[in-house]
Amino acid sequence: GKTTTLYTILKTLNKPGVSIITIEDPIEYSLEGTNQIQVNSKTELTFANGLRSILRQDPNIIMVGEIRDQETANIAVNAALTGHLLLSTLHTNDSATALPRLLDMKIEPFLIASTVNVVVGQRLVRKICVDCKAKKALTESEAKTIKNILPNSKEESLKQLYTGKGCKVCDNTGYLGRIGIYEVLEVTEAIRTAIVQKQSAADIRKIAMQEGMTTILEDGLKKAEQGITTIEEVLRVMNE
What we know:
Elements: H1 2-13, E1 20-24, E2 35-38, H2 47-57, E3 61-64, H3 70-81, E4 85-88, H4 98-104, H5 109-115, E5 118-128, E6 133-137, H6 140-149, E7 160-164, E8 175-186, H7 189-196, H8 201-210, H9 216-225, H10 231-238
Parallel strand pairs: 1-2, 1-3, 3-4
Antiparallel strand pairs: 5-8, 6-7
Helix pairs in contact: 2-3, 5-7, 7-8, 9-10
């Protein structure tokens, strides 16, 4: 899921005259017009060492498959400070938690505040099989969940949504394929201030929501309303 999102962003940014270098573990598929490097522990080609090498080539855009340690985080921040657009991933529960995670890696708060522009949080949910998709009445608790999280929901959405009944196409699971549910946290002045003050992920999340961020849960429930996935699937993924 994360790699697909990164590759999609890189494809959008990949224009003539733009130099893009990636370091990945592993390279999942080839990106035309991009110089891709694979991590290799046998030759001591780590994310950190590879990133140092990439910086000497001075590309416009750098993609680091994952920031796993303090050393890689430090080099990544320095790359961003010197005018490179840097894309990477972190393992966290949501977008807001990524910022304190960098603090845990001993990155100075003012450096995080001045280099991070956007954090995208995502989960993958199964899509309803279109061959056996059917309407289903909502339980009272399901309707209440939607109403609490999406107060502007149409009355129709609070009565019935969709499910997959199960068929040969989907092996009787009711689901076929997957789709991402997302939240996009833009690092605004208010959030930069919160980072410098070392406020908690919960506080940062609260500011982002006050400034209009759609949460992963909200996006998931909207996709359930649209008949793309089920409310059960969204709640299952959120509770993992």
